[in-house]
Structure formats: C-alpha cells, structure tokens
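Reminder to self: keep the SMILES exactly as supplied, no canonicalising. Ligand is zinc ion.
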Amino acid sequence: MKKTLLRIALLLAAIALISTCIGPGLILNAVRQEPPAENYAYRDSFLNDYEDVRVHLAALAADLGAEIASHPIDEGEGLYIDSFYLPAKKAPTNLIVLTTGVHGIEGYIGTVMLDVFFREVYPTLDITDTGVLVVANVNPYGMKNFRRYNENNVDLNRNFILDWDSFDLSSNQEYPKVDTFLGPTGKIGNALWHEVGFYASLAKTAVTDGADTISDALLTGQYEYPQGVYYGGTGDEASTAYLKDVFSRCLESPYENIVHIDIHSGYGPRYNMVIFNSVFETMTEAESREAFGYDHIIAHDSESFYATTGDTTDFFYRLALQKQTDTALFSTCFEFGTIGDAFFDTILSLKYTVDENRNHWYPTDNATSAEIIRQNYLELYYPTETAWREKTIQDFKAAALGVLEAKLR
Ligand SMILES: [Zn+2]
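Structure tokens returned for the bound complex:
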C-alpha cells in the first residue's frame, strides 16, 4: 500500500515537473503568429516598425502632392503625429478626416487603410468640392512600443473629455471592485502556472463580483488607477490636446460637411470590420445598414452597443454642439475585429490586455512568458493571417465607399 502511494506521488511529481518545463513551450507554439504570406493585396503596406510607417506616410503624401506636418510628442524619442491635407480644389463643401493610431499599436492597420483609401476610394471622389485631412499616428509612443496606451499609460480614446473640471474622475463605479483582478502586481513567472492562476482568479472574481461587473468595469474607461487598464488620465494628454485643436479648426473651417473616420482594431467578430457609431449619432443600426449598404454596424440602439467616456468621436460631436456650429458632422469608428466576440474570445482578449499591462509594469524574467505575452498582444491588434488581412481591405473599402456615398454632399 505504502509503495503504491509512493509510486503515485512520484508519478504526480514527475507530471508536474514535466508540464512545468514543457508546458510553456507548447503554449508559445500554440500562440505564435504565423509568418505573413509572400504575396497578397497590400502586402507592402503591412509594416512592423514605427519609423517605417513614418517613411511610408511621407511617400504617400508626396505621391499625392501634399506635405507632411509633424507635430512633436517627444522629440528626444523621435515621436511625432504626422498629418497631411489635400484641400478641395474649388469649393470647400466636404471635409473627410481620417485618424489612425489613437490606440498606438492599432496604427499599423490604420496605415494600411490609408493606402487603401487613397488607392481605391479617393479616386472615386469629386475633389473639386471635397478635401481630405489625415492625422496619422495620434499615439506615436504606443505605435513605437506596440502598446494600446500612450507614454503615460493613458488610453487616449478615454481621454477626450470636453471639460475636465466638471468631469467625475470616479465615474467608473465598478473598476475599484475588480482592480486586483485587472491590475495584478508582480512579475509573471512560468507560463503554464500563470494560465492556471489567471483562470482561477477570473473564476473567483466572477463568483464574488459577477461577470457583468468585470465587463462593466472594463470598456467604459477608468480615471483612478494610473497603472490599470483603460486608464483615461486626469487631463488632456499631449496627443489629445493636439487632436482637439485639429477638430476645433475643422469645425471653424469653411467646410460645411465633415465626415470623420477613426480607425481601430481589436474589438468585434474576427473577420468583420464593424462601423461603430457614436452615441451622439441618431441613426439606428437598421438605418445605418440601409444608408451605408454595409451589414456590420453598431449604433446606439444595438444590443452590443456600449457607451464609453472620453471617446474621440463623441468628443467631436460634443465640440460641435458646444460651438453651436452649422457644420454637419458624422464622426464614426471603423473597428477591425481580431480575436472574436464569442464568450471565450472576450475572455482571451481580456487576458491578453491584463497580461500585457502587468508585464509593462513588472517585466517578467522568463523569456518564454515574455514572448507569449507579446505574441498574444500582437494577435489582439494586428493579426498576420492572410485571410484576415485580405478581408480587412475588402471591408474597409466597402464601408468607406458606403459611408461617403451616404454622407458626402
Ligand atoms: Zn482602438
């Protein structure tokens, strides 16, 4: 009997030892992004380096006969917001504003879409009365460092508050309840045991506070935990101040109709780009679908609609209201889904988000764990799969043509 027990104990110890050594490597193999294919549409637009993006943008602007204006965010680090403007040739009726990289790492897919726009959409426009303004790499730190957040860990799409003095920084009542789950401290060690620990912690938090509390705490943004996820800051970040001023100048310009598209990735069904309308846009989901001839819409009346604070597109509408301008405005977000929107996909997205943020503050000593975190985060915002990349182009083109057809005068 004793011998049998000893054997079982030894066997279990051996299994634990082997899985601790082998498990992380297996996880890394499972999550590693596939190398991009040799050839597919816009292959050369899918870049992987912030400097390359800047060079690429400069060439694009030059081809169009425009000049890049670089607004410094941190000159020492070489961080700039790059813009260019193509004025309407005769009458300033319509102004199209394209913004990319508000969430740093998402600027890579944004760069691709600028190429798609100028190659396939721009030639269809009547440029005698339509101008285009591109504001690229709004969060250059996040682009350079492959983070969603900026140099102060601020989520810029939660930082566009119209008036900070009257804004309640403790507006997110749920976040404090789940902060220990969303903002764990300490270095991540062995990847296998980290997986086990994450799901145990998730289960514990879900049982104690309810799964809804976690989702409510997350997406709306929070303003009290500077090292946490979805932190919206406590005042205008440098990038925000700049873009706010750009929006203000657009509304004060002679253009009578503005269409703004802010390009994002990471949320929604994997192979579908979603047009995610501002809460200030009155069109319903059905009306938008009809108007744009595009199926994947989230509008204020959609079941999956969620309101955030400090959103870029909401800010644009608030500013227009504050200015009491006659300018017509449509400001929306194009969101490329990556992981997916099924229940377990959203848990994975959450895990990748929490792990990356933790590793930013407490970098792991474990090379395998570091690489798993990096690969997962890239997959969350910038997949390499050819089918995904090709579909993003189709969707962007269809949605952009549909929106502009409906909204330009
Ligand atoms: Zn985003």
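Points to follow up:
Residues 103, 106, 157, 264, 266 surround zinc ion (CB under 6 Å).
Residues 48-166+230-338+382-407 form a domain with the Aminopeptidase fold (CATH 3.40.630.10).
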